[in-house]
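User: I want to check something. If I give you two sequences, will you return the structure for each one separately, not as a complex?

Assistant: Yes, each is folded on its own. Here is the first sequence with its structure:
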Amino acid sequence: MSFELPPWKIIEEAHERIRPYIHRTPILTCQAINDRVGSEVFFKCDNLQKVGAFKIRGATNAVMKLSPEIAARGVVTHSSGNHAQALSLAARWRGIPAYIVMPEDAPRVKKEAVAEYGGKITYCRPTVADRQITADRVQMETGATFIHPYDNDDVIAGQGTAAKEFLEDQPDLDVLLAPVGGGGLLAGTLLAAKGMKPSIQVFAMEPARVDDAKRSLAAGRILENESTQTIADGLKTNLGERTFPIIAKLVDDVITVPEEDILPAMRFVFERMKIVIEPSSAVPVAPLLTGELRFPGKRIGVHLCGGNIDISAIDWGSIPPMRSC
């Protein structure tokens, strides 16, 4: 595949563009996790970002780049939640309408947040095809600009600002772990991290039940998920035409995480770090806690991508303790 990587400069420009709107999220550590893992682990807490997720970075960059004439017609997207919230808020900051297509089974807490941020919701059946068909119809009816949740150059650049901040604040990281769904965060992370520190290793983590990234890299082409049955609802989507070549060229490896390890890892973070994360954030944490993934003597960075979770929907008593190898 012939592919020219986007320049590092797009991350810098995106960061300057969105800086007035976003939080520079903190980096936290936890001695209990360091002791269990046997390495120093640093957590970039985009669960504490505006809208509770990293998605505000890419959505804001994309919305603020639109010309006044195009922006006036509004923006449209399809999303299970975090990008929907982010685009709704970014559009509100710009004073334009946001038309949001959401699957009927999206988490309640995310539906409510989209409405609170002013997004105009249209529901669809919970399939990738139905999302796009419905979004195309809404775009045709409104004339709004479609901003893809992850397969968009401006979105990818915006997401990369998290890794830029991470390495500016913690420049001696050896390893960076990030979850992967559609690949916007991972692609942006790779561009930023490898642009700033070529020696850093970047590993992607995905639920074993939605392992399209692992299989796609092995096949050399984009493959779809054979199932979407994972508690990590933000990681159900397939890689995109823009994200796939960046990931294929730069990622060190993709690690799959057993479904049964995700909620115990989330609960461990709740109890030991005293912060709220969603299941998608727990995916890169789980293999460290179980011991499936070890980096002796290395300084490990983990991107906690979001904290939007319907607390009432979790049966805490049924979540087993975090297992060890």
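And separately, the second sequence with its own structure:
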Amino acid sequence: MQKINLVDHDLFNPGHAACPGCQESLAMRVILNTIGTDAAAVFPPSCGAVICGPHPYSSLNIPVFQTSLESAAAAASGLRRALNQRGKRETTVVVFAGDGGTYDIGFQALSSAVERNEDILYVCFDNEGYMNTGAQKSSSTPLYASTASTPGGKPSKKKNIIGILAAHNIPYVATASTSHMNDLIAKVEKALTIKGSRFLAVLVPCLDGWGLPDDSGVEVARLAVDCGMWPLYEVEDGDRYTLNQDTKPATIDAYLKIQKRYRHLDDDRLADLQASVDRDWERLRQCAAMSARTAA
């Protein structure tokens, strides 16, 4: 068992509205306490906004601005500039958004903000669907996963949001998981040392939307990393790739078996999904190897 290197500054209060066992509330607590007190948060409508609570109440002990679903990155950009005008350039502006407000509805504002290299930290809590409105699919939903709007399985692959944002040549883009907390903490700490646009996608399995037991969130997140469906990696300045776990010690079988959203899959689709994961892993491994050779 690994000890989590975290000092709790009481920035995330009990009594919030998260589901029992919610991985998003766990990740939010860790990220907030890593950032510290000199921060302001932006929330679009999402599970995170529900967890935070309606104005004027809040489960966070830092200032919170709840905005529209499509405008989180734009609102954060404005907040950043307002703080700069007041001489508060060291205050961290952090966005906490879901995949619907990041991959889909909020993507135009996000792309514009990172193209300008706005000095914000954008955290996407990725539960791979519109979970607080009935578990409909988003463009983050993986291939063949069953959702309320794709009961037979999603026919298209998950959008490669990391690759898309890396193509904007911003300083820092990374993935993280609630199963690897010290890796998450290290990435937040690293992001805090960087000026400009920083993006962190955190896998937060949705217990209800994925059909999971209440106590299985961390286990499922770890299986996602180990089988390569959620690799842990960083991209700096658009082209320097680092694999934080450079082996893929498991197949997808155990990861899929524990979730209800994959129970409809036949052997052909299982094999096709495994092949897709293997191809994506190999491309990522090659990018990391090329970056290592260039650095040498």
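Because they were folded independently, the notes below concern the second chain alone. The first helix runs from residue 23 to 35. Residues 228 and 281 are 6 Å apart (CA to CA).
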